[in-house]
Structures are given as C-alpha cells and as structure tokens.
Amino acid sequence: MIRSLSNLLFGCTHQHTTFPFTPRHRNSGPTASGATRNGTYVACLDCGQEFSYNWKEMRVGQQVTARAVTPETQPSFR
C-alpha cells in the first residue's frame, strides 16, 4: 500500500526488475504496450515498463518506447 502510494506521488524507481531476457527471434514483434523488442530486455516488476539491457556493461538501458501499431487484418471466412 505504501509502495503504491509513493509510486503515485513520486513515480516508480524500477528497483525490482526481471532477469535479462533475450527472445529467440531478433524481432519478436510488438509487446503488450505496442513497442517492438530488439535484443535483450528487462521488465520492472512494479509497474511493467520494459527497458533494454546491455550484457557487456551489465546495465539497464533506455525504456522501450511504444510505437504506433497498425491493426492487423484478420482473414474473413464466409
């Protein structure tokens, strides 16, 4: 409760992240937020935001930004 209140007032500090994850495919497609993942990334366990991860420097990088997603057309079977 106190953590969620402090996140509301001050924003998430992204201290609790997942282990770095690298998808098998270089471009694994859009994420839940509509962003495209390329390479290794981590996700914040408190707020769900995703960040790139640099294995050489062992550091969290920039936030994976959302891009405009075009809706996919589904085939119509009549």
Architecture overview:
The structure is a single chain. The chain is α+β, with helices and mostly antiparallel strands and 78 residues long. It has one helix at 2-10, and strands at residues 27-30, 36-38, 41-43, 50-54, 59-63. The protein has a domain at 14-63. It is flat. The chain starts with a helix and ends in a 15-residue tail after the last strand. The relative contact order is 0.21.
Detail the poorly predicted runs. Answer: none
- Compute the number of strand runs: 5
Main beta-sheet strand count, sense and barrel state: 3 strands, antiparallel
Strands of the widest sheet, in order across it, are 3-4-5
> What is the terminal-to-terminal distance?
51 Å
How would you name the oligomeric state of the polypeptide chains in this document? single chain
What is the topology?
Layout: H1 2-10, E1 27-30, E2 36-38, E3 41-43, E4 50-54, E5 59-63
Antiparallel strand pairs: 1-2, 3-4, 4-5
